[in-house]
Amino acid sequence: MKRAWLQHLVAKKLGADAVSIGRSGGETSTFSPPTTVHGHGDYVGTGPTAQPCTARPFEDMPGPRGLPLIGTLLDYTPLGPFSLKKLHESFFERYRQFGKISKETIGNKCFVSVYDPRDIETLFRTEGPNPSWMQLMALGEVRKRLGKPLGMINETGQKWRQLRYAAQSKLLNPKSVSSFVPVLDEISRDFVEKLRTGRSAATLEPTIDLDAELRKWSLESVVSATLGIRLGCLQKHRQIPDKDTEDLLQSSDAFLDTWSKLELGPPLYMLYPTKTWRKFLRANELWLSAAGRMIDRSLDRSESERDPLQPEVTLLEHIVTRKELTPDDVVMIITELIFAGIESTAVAMTYNLYTMAKNQHVQEKVRREVNAVVGKSGKVTQDALKSLKYVKACIKETSRVLPAFSMRNRILDKEIVLAGYRVPPNVIIRVLTHVTGQLPEYVVEPDRFAPERWLRDDTTIPKPHPFAVRPFGVGTRSCIGQRLAEQELGILLAKMIQQFHIECDGEMEQIFNIANKPDLSGTFKFTEL
Ligand code: HEM
Asked: Cα–Cα–Cα angle for 208, 214, 216, nearest 5°?
């Protein structure tokens, strides 16, 4: 098997000897023996570690020394070793330097970086019913200036709960989400057709912009799931998307382009409207008005305009009846769901195509499963999707090696003990499962692309620690779109493997962004089967 691509990724990120640092980083003899977590199979590693009585003070926690007032801020400027575009590499480097837990002050913010899945488990079991994370300042500021509510992504406490519960009663309900399968199958079929006719006859490489078309696929999917309308932006006769679709796609690009610069850089926009800020503001205005018009379009549909493939009650119709929500809340929930659902799912799909291309034996195994369950040209139905277990395992394994998000964070209002150290309240605790998923003490043979590790009945390779790879997060504030995204990915991946033999002549890197952007040095080749 060729796994040079994966070894290259891991070696580059961790350094050849770094993967053995493991549990030695910061662990002391006063550390109580961990209790084993049961019920997850023969995974590597063990359960929660918190033992407050023997914990060491926060001051003892290892970490880079910073300068007074600005901490290690310079490390993340052109004067330092890390670039914002490759911020995820700094997470690997800090692990290499300090081990499984470290603290760092960047500017005026104090971060604790957590890599041990036992600590990740402890954190999520402690976070309580209304978890908080670091506010996205630029997003909060733009909403304030536009007179809009803060939205689910930035809200905390009771208000977050209200917004979240209104939407999750539909979006995380397996029965309700599986009612989207027929329409998602149709959207994926449109994507496959677009690609079939959008390849060079000589090289079989795409002549269409694959990333852009995948974004249309995920936009079409999330709009159909939330609003029950079809944009048709992948259909053959639609050369140019309609104005609202175009506005959403354009503003989403501009939004992503500017958001991370504003969130990660100094907040100069608070002092004067920088060029990046103006672009960001414009993108938000464009986004909100296009999403608003789509919501109107959905509500104004007559019975005869309803798509028979769509569920009878859309998510929008469901939340619009909730008395506790204002009309602005409803618009913001839908707007955020559509936004959060585009880039994340599109990039995850690109990574899946890449891992299939680089692991031909896995691709063949997927094809055998798809042909057995769906046939060589059949539709992916709800029942079929349940049986595509290897497809699901491939999606999970891909998220381990090429995650759409490298980091999540939590802010607790009480002290917690992690890796034997007391962590005070209000510190930003970063959960770095991008790194954890590459560590051999939690994932056996991490440099091997082995979807089998996620199959319940497979005994050829031990199961990873259950908290080592969590692409959608954990707990009450985990991704609300998880089921929808998994369904979208499962359907399209199955259809792609059913229709094409996939190859790729380049290497995949990632660019750190709100969702990690694929940076491929070569091209894909899709040969029709
Ligand atoms: C492969 C695709 C996706 C990935 C990998 C992903 C991953 C994530 C992650 C890691 C979080 C943070 C969880 C935490 O902190 O514990 C999150 C939050 C969120 N995701 Fe996703 N996501 C994906 C697709 C979607 C889709 C399709 C939607 C919309 C339908 C969506 C909507 C959201 C929202 C609204 C939040 C914030 C939830 C809250 O604050 O309560 N995501 N996602």
From this structure: 95
